[in-house]
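Subject: Sanity check before I submit

Could someone independently write out the structure tokens for this chain? I want to compare against mine line by line before I put it in a report. The sequence has 171 residues.
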Amino acid sequence: MKKITAPLDKKQIQSLKSGEEVLLSGFIFTARDQAHKRLIKSKKFPFDLRGAVIYYCGATKTPKGKVIGSCGPTTSSRMDIFTPALLKKGLMGMIGKGRRSKEVAAQIKKHGAVYFLAHAGCGALITKYVKKATPVAYRDLGPEAIMRLEVIDLPLIVGIDAKGRNIYGTD
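---
Independent answer below. Compare away.
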């Protein structure tokens, strides 16, 4: 498995191929529907989007003695309406589950970005790869607040690579 580090750069992800398994380390940000709505309307982003990876996740309440609660992926297609604007601002990676629209797949290719698939149904297991979780913005959204996660060797699958190859085929 290839090891990659976030924030991402184009050189790092150009060699990735759809279907390939990777281990991601570094800093990523959680954001779901409500956080995306605010990000799009924001004149100033609460974190630097250049090279950033957004994990479509809303973690559950953090149990005592743990870094984070269960943090499995949510359905990525719900973020498709926001994705092209964020890619234009420098977003390089997204993590979630399921298919993306043809438009988003084309935008991923256009911007040389990447879409990763996290193992669905494994939210409790994924917590073992999260070493630190820090609130960044929109705390009033509860589990949908944006969090900065430090991850080590988070196992992912390349769903759509920077060349537009799609693990789901060409719908």
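---
OP: Matches mine. For the report I'm noting this point. The beta strands are 2-6, 21-30, 53-55, 93-96, 114-117, 130-137, 146-160.
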